């Protein structure tokens, strides 16, 4: 039995299950990521001859596989958000990015250093890689496919989708800060000025501007070009990959943040012709590719887990990881959303469902492939534990929680509609008013009289 043949058969089975499971698991308290994580663990436990997918042994392969998975998910997320970009209408997103994410990074870094015994660079890297909400594994709590209605999305799904779209790029400066500390020293004079000017100001600006420009040009080509070149007419979904790789590659060549560029480019393409059906074609193709990549990554992650990924884990590091999911993210998310749009119950759901996943793997693989990072094995074990708990816990809770939230939203919508409806009247008199207390009926009409015509 050749390992290559086993791998091909496994990929075929995974692709088939990727088409079947979403329909089988629909509206059940079980998610596709849980199923494929378990399948990966099972397959690599069997004597198949497959090599152990160890991210510490293959950091560059891990970096590029997770990189592709994240950028395809970011393009899909940017295309399916109906709400136009706005300082006011995206208030929840800005709060999560400006308040919740820095609080998560700082709290995890402090706990990692003080409680888990990580050196400062490793503690900061742990906070940076675990801070972003993942765009790949959070499909159950994200908005659906593109529609023509700008306000069709509830606040929970919108906030989690938009946060996942933007925070993957904005976490990168903190990863670079950890690398700078590991290669120089903790003293800010050795790295702070260059870090702020290059990795914060320049790379964020290039990522945003480059994504906006590329998305604007592609929007013109898709929807405004002469008839024979107007690509939206041909409804070819694979063009979403062209947009994804162009935005990411060109901005990375220019030294900007490609993750940020991909999401911004997707928003610019959507803004070029907001209600065109071609957006659904692009989104559906991106979603299919994303699903296949998710299957591959989860199978490999399951193999890494049974291959000993969690072996270096210590109890203090495990406590830090669990504290992020159970305390730090919920509290920081809830605090950041005080006064934001939505009901208190929605704020708690947004805060609780900060799913961690493939994005965390990418950042950690990138950092450990750049330098010989201190305590890398412990970092991988901690991040692996967090992702397992997030996949299982959030995967089980997502469907029932979102169903309860949807039902509560429907009840409040119906109540608001009743409050806005005019009170029914009978001949100008509100029904039930002005009648004798002993009767719920109108007094009998005298013979020979006529009611005035109703208008």
What's the arrangement of secondary structure elements?
Blueprint lengths: L2 H22 L7 H14 L13 H22 L10 H24 L5 H11 L24 H16 L1 H12 L8 H32 L15 H15 L4 H15 L5 H32 L5 H22 L7 H9 L5 H13 L5 H45 L4 E2 L2 E2 L25
Antiparallel strand pairs: 1-2
The helix-and-strand class reads mainly alpha
Measured between the Cα atoms of the first and last residue, the distance is: 84 Å
Uncertain segments: 431-455
Number of domains: 1
Share in β-strands: under 5%
Helix content: 55-70%
* Secondary-structure element pattern, one letter each: HHHHHHHHHHHHHHHEE
Strand order of the largest sheet: 1-2
* Major pleated sheet: 2 strands, antiparallel
- CA radius of gyration is 26 Å
Overall mean pLDDT? 87
User: Helical segment tally?
Assistant: 15
Q: How many beta strands in the DSSP annotation?
A: 2
According to CATH, the fold-level topology is Na+/H+ antiporter like fold
- Global outline: globular
CATH class value: Mainly Alpha
Describe the structure.
- The protein is an all-alpha fold.
- The protein has helices at residues 3-24, 32-45, 59-80, 91-114, 120-130, 155-170, 172-183, 192-223, 239-253, 258-272, 278-309, 315-336, 344-352, 358-370, 376-420, and strands at residues 425-426, 429-430.
- It has a single domain, classed as Na+/H+ antiporter like fold.
- The protein is 67% helix and 1% strand.
- A two-stranded antiparallel ribbon has the order 1-2.
- Strand 1 (425-426) and strand 2 (429-430) form a beta hairpin.
- The radius of gyration is 26 Å and the shape is globular.
- The N and C termini lie far apart (84 Å).
